[in-house]
Protein: Tetratricopeptide repeat protein
Organism: Paraburkholderia bryophila
Amino acid sequence: MTMKNTLDRRVAAMLTTLCLSACAHNPVQPAAATPGATPGPQTGAATNLAATLPPDVLVACQRSAAETTAGHLDDAARLTSQCLTSHSLPVAVRALLLQQLAFLDMARHDDRGALDAQLAALDLTPKPSDAQLIVLAHLYQTNHRNEESLATLTPLDAPHVIDPALRASYYLEVGAALAALGRHQDALDAFGKGIAANPYLAEPYRKRAAEREASGDAAGARADYQQFAGWALDAQIDAPTRAKLASLGIDPAEQRRHPFGSVNPLHDMLAGLLEQSRQQLKSATTTAAKAEAYSSISAFTDNLGEHAEALTAIDKAIALAPDNIDYRQSKVTTLLSSNRADDALKEAAPLRRQAHAEAAAAAAPFTIYQKYGEVSGTAAMAYIQQGRWSEAIDALTDRAKGADADDRDYMATMYLYVRAKSAGAAPASPYFDDYIRRTAPTANATYRRGLLLYMQGKLPIDVVYSQVTSLGNPVQIQNGLAETWFVAAAYERYVKHDDAAAHAYVGRLNDLQPYGTMEWTMARRGGA
């Protein structure tokens, strides 16, 4: 599924910007833009709202979100506008619907309508967020009101105040406004600051490349176009830019194979940590310190693919500290990494029995499941590798019961993956089905919530990609891309039954070489 089926590249960028700010502080928000929505238990406010709205307006409100998800943007905009005609809408709901309408109009290339809706939404918002003001500045630019765009952004020019996650978007809009006003050196400076804030976003490179080219800096422009091509999705490359890349001999497909260039962030991080652990072993003077050093050496060598050395090291750690639960769980993971699923499950069995016994007796089972989280997750992957679907779902459930919201989202995605991979043979899980019913319709800033929605066909992969590249940290981005390309490959193969598309995503995962990730291991063993 491509961006043009739902949201164009501008809307994806703006949605990411808004979520980074608005959603990060409230990870489970009510679906206020769809009053009376049926998924999940209704709040009292939603129930009262459903009782006060005329039936035709209520239906329009409920259908607008569904049409948006389906990519029927004209119908979604019409229904949202119809919903807004009601005088019974609470102010907060009206503001959210207007914001939704602004995004829909952006996707429909109705720049004037988008600006009007955004202004109306902010009129109802006592204290607009920085993200909302950045969106407003963007819409002023698309309406050729560049002075107003810059005036909107100027009060935000306080790096110690603006959310670091928004800094790249802020400088992108500042640079665009300055460029439109003919202040080219200032624009170059702004784009440079945006790239420094997050070097893994495509659009700032394209904007700076155009400015460099106009100023006669051909070499700098070409370097920026190469970076743009490495991080851009196809939907982000318009016809003029594609022609420019072709004229420079830059192939986007080839560039994006290795977006980090010759650097491998995960590998380099793991290699550095391994060296530190070896130095710690040399300086260790107590049994506990030596055991911990061996455990660390095992983990990092395992992640780097040196499985035999990893097993030797973890056995030494366990010999020094036989009662350490973490070390025993680590051995299970290393056995599975070594493609010894039977041995891994045999080693895991007593630990999982112990976990269940402790959880049954605990006042707070969450802490017990959290304590045994590694062995639960590893067992799940081993069962998946062996096609033991019911046991895999049980282990995923144990892992989810001790996880934070972000990890629970990913375990729920893995549950949907198991169901799809098994072609319906895996049993339904009341735990995960209830979790998905209650959480999937809500907004969330994390790409893992995006993956959960994507696996249900409710969000394009392009939006998830934008969420990942907005993380800013290369190790987190590489890990996030590993998860994203694996889930995309699985969705294409087992849900859409498109083997060619699945193969392409597996290719991207292999090109990425995300050392230490479960996804790369599973993909190489035919998991997607």
